[in-house]
Each structure stands twice: as C-alpha cells, then as structure tokens.
Amino acid sequence: MTADLFDSVADAQPWREEIADGAVLLRAFVRPIESELIAAVRAIVAQSPFRRMTTPGGHLMSVAMTNCGARGWITDHTGYRYDPIDPRTGAPWPAMPPVLRDLALRAAEQGGFTGFAPDACLVNRYTPGTRLSLHQDKDELDYAAPIVSVSLGLPANFLFGGMARSDKPRRFRLVHGDVVVWGGPNRLAYHGVAPLADGEHPLLGRQRINLTFRRTQ
Ligand code: SIN
Ligand code: FE2
C-alpha cells in the first residue's frame, strides 16, 4: 500500500511528461547546472565558433551551428556527415565537457535509456525568426541510443511528429532548462523548431541555444 502510493507519486512527477512511446520531456531538468552549461557552451564557441552551414541542396541553414565531442555533425555541398575535424578550424572539435556528458547520461536514464555514451554534441543557435524544418536524425549508425536535446535561452515551439514527414506534428513549448529525450520506437520521429519569437532572455539575451547529444557509431 505504502509502496503503491509511493510509486504513483513517483510516476506523477510534474516535471516528467511522456510525449510519445520512448519520448519524454523533462521540464527544468538542467536548471540546477545552468551556469556550468552556459560557461561550457561559451568555451566551446571560443574554440569552434558558430557558423551557418550549407545543405547539399545549396541552401544556407538559418540555424548557426558548432559541435563538441569526438565527432561533429556537418553539412556541405557533398552531404551530411559526422567528422572528427572542424572544417572551419582544421582542428578536432572541442572535447565534450564532463558536465555535458553527465547530464546527457542522466537525462537519457529518465527516458528509460541506460548507459548513454554520446560521442557528439551538436550546438545550435537560433536568433529571432530562425527555424529548423522537419527532419529525422538519421546520420548516426546505431539507432539503439536515444537523442537528448537541451534547451537554453529563449523559448521555442518544438515540433514532434511521426515516422512520416506528412504526419502532423504536435507542438511543445520548450523553455530554458527543458530537456527532450527520444528513442526506441520514436528514435526516427520527424521533428523541428518553429520560427523563434523575438524576446530577451536574462542569461542568454536574444537567442536560443540547443544542445543535441548523439551516439554516432
Ligand atoms: C535538432 O533537431 O537538431 C534540434 C532541435 C532543437 O533545436 O530543439
Ligand atoms: Fe534533429
């Protein structure tokens, strides 16, 4: 009886919302370490700056990107891929700081994925008006590992759809500190970000920073 009561309370944590099979939204999950995260992002950007990349189709992406970890996601006229070298600096991407690795592991556990060991973290910067169209994260070799996505700065409307591009996505308003984890049957769900509304965040100003952790190989 006591155990049952305890279980139902644990299941009803207001900050943990199951949004699909294998997908959870963890509200305010990284708030306790927000200063360390922001400092870590600044150090990454000092080494490998944000840049706008070109898609294989020749479109300049509106999101500016950089990476940390053993491999980084890049796109250019030849295609999308993970690469150990930052093409801008000619050097390896900045190492993944332990505070980031640890938070990705803990968040993945909350989503039911134990032992998540990301080797790449894509850092996206959205300024007002910036959007990310619906896509699947499918440049990784092994889909057993989830995607862990951390939101910092201005709020955004995250679009989370189904397995087909034509499935109507649901909208989730993500604010500073929220984390979304998706994997299992929804690992290849289409997702994107609606155009960012203007605003001013007390810690990050007129921008949203998103970190996505991946296991690429
Ligand atoms: C992504 O799909 O890579 C980023 C998602 C986000 O910015 O919330
Ligand atoms: Fe994505």
From TrEMBL:
EC primary class: oxidoreductase
The record's free-text note on cofactor binding: Binds 1 Fe(2+) ion per subunit.
Binding-site list for substrate: 73, 80-82, 139, 165
Keywords on record: Dioxygenase, DNA damage, DNA repair, Iron, Metal-binding, Methyltransferase, Oxidoreductase, Transferase
Keyword field contains NAD: no
Cofactor: Fe(2+)
Molecular function terms from GO: broad specificity oxidative DNA demethylase activity; ferrous iron binding; methyltransferase activity; oxidative RNA demethylase activity
Domain Fe2OG dioxygenase: 117-217
Binding positions for 2-oxoglutarate per the UniProt entry: 124-126, 208-214
Domain of life: Bacteria
Residues holding Fe cation: 135, 137, 191
Matches recorded under Pfam families: 2OG-FeII_Oxy_2
Entry EC no(s): 1.14.11.33
Name the record gives this protein: Alpha-ketoglutarate-dependent dioxygenase AlkB
Organism: Bradyrhizobium niftali
